[in-house]
Amino acid sequence: MTSQPEAAAEEFSLLLDDQMCFALYAASRAVTALYRPLLEELGLTYPQYLVLLALWEDDDVPVKALGAGLQLDYGTLTPLLKRLETAGLLRRDRAADDERTVRITLTDKGAALRERARSIPAAIGDAMGLEPEEFERTRASLRRLTANVSARTASLR
């Protein structure tokens, strides 16, 4: 006799193409590859672009808040910030009221780069070939998936 968990496990395929994780991985790689030539023109990598998108939306933020918004840990975010600072796109300054807090602020050069990047979302959207409603449904599904998995992961800690 097969137990309940074993029976449920037998219903799922171990074929690579049947895995949600592989579909997400392949889609992520494909979309990131779309960005590469557009971002090379700006002298940016995809993770650096994400940092700038966050700062263009909300400038002068603590590193901790930026990392939380981007879902990046400190060890991943710090090298990105150092490279962007070296490129003259942002500044890292200790907060006057709390030396433990490092605030991130765009430079004029970093703020000006926003105009050069303005065409990127439309170019990526066109390349994806999704109708506006399908695009919104897909994004909403991915956000829900992220929230569900994050909540589950947090409950396992």
UniProtKB/TrEMBL annotation:
Lineage: superkingdom: Bacteria
Gene3D superfamilies to which the protein is assigned, alphabetical: Winged helix-like DNA-binding domain superfamily/Winged helix DNA-binding domain
Entry keyword annotation includes Transmembrane helix: no
InterPro entries reported in the protein's UniProt record: HTH_MarR-typ, MarR/SlyA-like, Transc_reg_Sar_Rot_HTH, WH-like_DNA-bd_sf, WH_DNA-bd_sf
Annotated PROSITE patterns: HTH_MARR_2 (PS50995)
Keywords linked to the UniProt accession: Cytoplasm, DNA-binding, Transcription, Transcription regulation
Residues of the HTH marR-type domain: 17-147
GO molecular function, one term: DNA binding
GO BP annotations listed: response to stress
Compartment(s) where it occurs, according to its Swiss-Prot or TrEMBL record: Cytoplasm
A single GO cellular-component term on record: cytoplasm
A Pfam family it matches: Staph_reg_Sar_Rot
Protein name as catalogued: MarR family transcriptional regulator
